[in-house]
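User: I'll paste a sequence; please echo it back and then give the predicted structure.

Assistant: Echoing your sequence first, then the prediction.
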Amino acid sequence: MPLTELSIKSLKPKAKLYRVADSNGLCLEITPQGNKLWRWRFYHLGKPQMTALGKYPYVSLAQARKLRDEARETLKSGKHPTLAKKAQKLRRSLEGANTFERIARNWMENKKKGLNPKYAKQSLERLEQLVFPMIGALPVTDITIPDVVRVVERIGNRGTIETAKRMKQLIGQIFRYAAQRGLCDHNPAADLRDILPPKEEKHHACIPLAELPTLLQAIEGRKNDFSKYAMQLLALTFVRTGELIGAKWEEIDFERAEWHIPKERMKMKRPHLVSLSKQALAVLKELHKKTGTKTHIFHSPASKSMHISNGTVLMALRRMGYQGRMSGHGFRTVASTLLNEKGYPPDVIERQLAHEAEDKIRAAYNRAEYLLERKKMMQDYADMLEKMRTAKNKVVNPRFVQVGGS
């Protein structure tokens, strides 16, 4: 006969444990100490089994019957109810421990050996400031696509589109790390390409081509200091300012007339080769007389980094009257514009500028090719600049300067 709340209350403890049946295998176990425990009897793989469903009165009769029915459904699916319950309990405990913040910190610890220390520190600080306050305490299994969208859009709405883009990438990497370790089933940041407005193009100050001869002549007229040599090499190599000021003598191969910049110092994290023209080599030889015994070409004992600062070139241009009109990056823009106008192949120019190719296969191809074309182009360009710099008593239009074969 099925149990009732009244009949359960009337059950008294005995000297030995005994059980009273309810229905469909559910029973109430009464211990000698007076505890009343719900049990469900069932068969699994032909063998009699029993699982606990809770303690009365914390689990009422109605709740016990519901738990029994759920256990029966689990059994019908081929799973052992007790083992399935333990597995679910374990999953819940792991979910509580595997918050996004905890996994993000584990990911950072795992990855930081291969990252630039400054970048790793900055990434963790941004996660702490911008992401953890919103989703850091949530288990990764509970975080949805809208949750990630809210985080990224909030960062972007502050006007920091580039930061929002980078944090979206970081969140995606953290979820991939979690999924690879079985801590979540999907990556809610996997395809959020359209949630941010396009980044406004940053324009670096750059003079018109017509003013290039005047600038080159003004640089030539300066005293022989680091700012003069830096501007000359920026014009002749059109590397980024940071790549130039951090240059080391060990990167220069005078015999092959090549400058090999390691990937660690490149924006795209790929090694870069600069073919050195006769004019660039001449500047480097003058510098070698000054700092050839040092590690850095632009050695500065006053700097912790042991080389001149990014502001050296900008300050020199400012003193020359080019504030807001020309920058270190402007030499790259000038070179790209002039070489394209002269008809040099765009792929050769882009590879020399160390720009990322849109197609990864094309990027790999470009790393191995165009060396001869780049070598000729760099010498042609240096000759072109020399003609502008040495012109006497007349304004030279760069568009009409002729170089060999171009």
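The radius of gyration is 36 Å. Strands lie at 18-21, 26-30, 36-44, 47-56, 252-253, 258-261, 272-275.
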